[in-house]
Amino acid sequence: MKFEHPYIPLHTIKDLITEKYGISLYILRTDLTHPQISGNKWFKLKNNLIEAKNKNINTLLTFGGAFSNHIAATAAAGKEYGFKTIGIIRGEEYSELNPTLNFAVKSGMKLDYVSRSLYKDKTELYKYANTKYWEDKFYLIPEGGSNELGVSGCMEISNHINLDFNYICCASGTGATLSGIILSLKKNQKAVGFQILKASGYIKNEVNTWLLKYPKICIPKSNENNNPIIENSLIQINWEVNENYHFGGYGKTNNGLKDFIKWFQQTNNVPLDFLYTGKMMFGIYDMIEKEIFKRGDTIVAIHTGGMQGNLGKDFLAIKKQNLKFQ
User: How far apart are CA 161 and CA 153, in angstroms?
Assistant: First the structure.
């Protein structure tokens, strides 16, 4: 199976705020990698699909919520590359499918709805999947495409950045994309992950778990005097997670975020999603205005796709409006 690396444009962002504070800001449009398998999902899925093909497995099984970008991308990848797909969905089944699940079904994905309590217990969830679908001899892809092959795929994202930068930023829901980016950094570069979940320390712990699996990354350990020992002087602790811009949790938003996304698109001609990249860009601009990023810094923001999630927000808004007038 061959995956041709797409051309990914790197857009220069110039507006009154970046000019005022002397910041060079760019956005890497990985949302344009593919019409449906877009953003970081393309990088997360690529190596997994190759592995499935190498093992002669023709069914993919994965997990996600009702508005999951990963579910939509996996369904599209299955249709394009000749896999059957099974999506185990968190929560109850609705009589009317939302745009995400409707797209998945039209792409050939079989949906299986499970309770939120079962979905939360990953050991029991995987046992359920293996018991119910053992005859399918499936290739399992974790929620969000976040496994070792997903992380290694995300290490390739920075290959598409053809300039020197100080900071690279991405939105984080599982930590796998951020981990891959961290592993690809050069000296004097730093990654900033913007957590989109309301769960203190979650992404930081997830990233540490991924990085410990790769000896290339340098993790501080303590010697007898409790002084940190850096195992690799070239790759130090070159990352951080910002938890200040989740807007109340996954899927949550407010008028301030909506107004920012509208302004950003009108000003820079780049659409943002409400779940991931919109929150990250809001955070970047807030940090610029607070002068956390310094004059002369060069920042590359990763647009991780997920634009289909905006259709989900619109769907929910229409549903609420209809209920209001019933």
Answer: 15
Domain that holds residue 225: 10-35+148-315
Whole-number Å distance between alpha carbons of 176 and 146: 5
Read off the pLDDT of residues 140-167 as tens digits, 9 standing for 90 and up: 999 999 999 999 999 999 999 999 999 9
pLDDT in tens, 270-301: 999 999 999 999 999 999 999 999 999 999 99
Which of 77-97 are b and which e, b meaning 16 or more Cβ less than 10 Å from the residue's Cβ?
bbbebebbbbbbbbeeeeeeb
- Position with higher pLDDT, 233 vs 93: 93
Last residue within a domain, chosen from 145, 176, 199: 145
Q: Of 31-40, 151-160, 216-225, where does mean pLDDT reach its minimum? A: 216-225
From the list 290, 303, 266, 301, the residue with the least C-alpha distance to 20 is 290
| Host H or E run for residue 69 | helix 69-81
The reply to whether 2 falls in a domain is no
Do residues 228 and 281 both lie within one domain?
Answer: yes
Distance CA 11, CA 266 (A): 15
Nearest to 6 by CA among 36, 26, 48, 49: 36
Counting the structural domains of the chain, the total is: 2
